[in-house]
């Protein structure tokens, strides 16, 4: 048999097998059970007192800071309080795309929520979403509800790892869930 034919057939079979593995790997990154995935996500979010809020600066670089968020609403909306003078207000007014990154106390589990942030500055919304302990709130916002501004963060894409949620074994890509298809990556 022709050595070149054997060699090219072997290469072709290897390439086909690689494509099949990568296709299977991509499918694995999606949660097999949506409810189990969401329950795990909520357990990590609701156990966390703090999270990292990541915005994009005008220079295009990410900006990260620790914030004290609300728990997740029924639709997974998360609220973050701030003052009008902060950098995050300016950054989000120019680019509403944000990420909240939660790490569990075991340091082996995490949730990343990519979402769109919307600023609310009305006293009515401030009173409805006052999730700070009163003593801390009075210290940070002495004239509450004045200067108590809120970002309403609506998730569009969620990634999670740990607590039984395993990454893809070839790419290490975490399992993910698209909430708003208009804003999810084309190839998760």
TrEMBL record:
Keyword Membrane listed: no
UniProt keyword annotations, A-Z: Signal
Entry keyword annotation includes Signal: yes
Signal peptide: 1-24
InterPro entries: Pyridox_Oxase_N, Split_barrel_FMN-bd, Stress-Dev_Protein
Top-level division of the source organism's lineage: Bacteria
Domain Pyridoxamine 5'-phosphate oxidase N-terminal: 40-129
Protein name (Swiss-Prot/TrEMBL): Pyridoxamine 5'-phosphate oxidase N-terminal domain-containing protein
């Amino acid at each position: 048999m022709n050595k070149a034919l054997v060699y090219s057939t072997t290469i072709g079979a290897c390439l086909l097998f690689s494509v099949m593995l990568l296709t299977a790997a991509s499918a694995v990154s999606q949660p097999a059970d949506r409810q189990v995935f969401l329950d795990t996500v909520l357990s990590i979010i609701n156990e966390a007192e703090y999270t990292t809020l990541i915005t994009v600066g005008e220079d295009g670089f990410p900006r990260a800071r620790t914030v004290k968020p609300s728990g997740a609403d029924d639709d997974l909306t998360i609220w973050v309080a701030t003052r009008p003078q902060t950098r995050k207000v300016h950054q989000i007014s120019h680019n509403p795309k944000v990420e909240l990154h939660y790490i569990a106390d075991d340091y082996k589990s995490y949730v990343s929520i990519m979402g769109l942030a919307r600023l609310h500055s009305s006293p009515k919304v401030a009173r409805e979403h006052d999730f700070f302990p009163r003593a801390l709130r009075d210290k940070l916002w002495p004239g509450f509800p004045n200067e108590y501004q809120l970002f309403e963060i609506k998730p569009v894409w969620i990634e999670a790892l740990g607590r039984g949620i395993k990454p893809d074994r070839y790419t290490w890509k975490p399992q993910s869930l698209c909430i708003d298809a208009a804003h999810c990556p084309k190839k998760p």
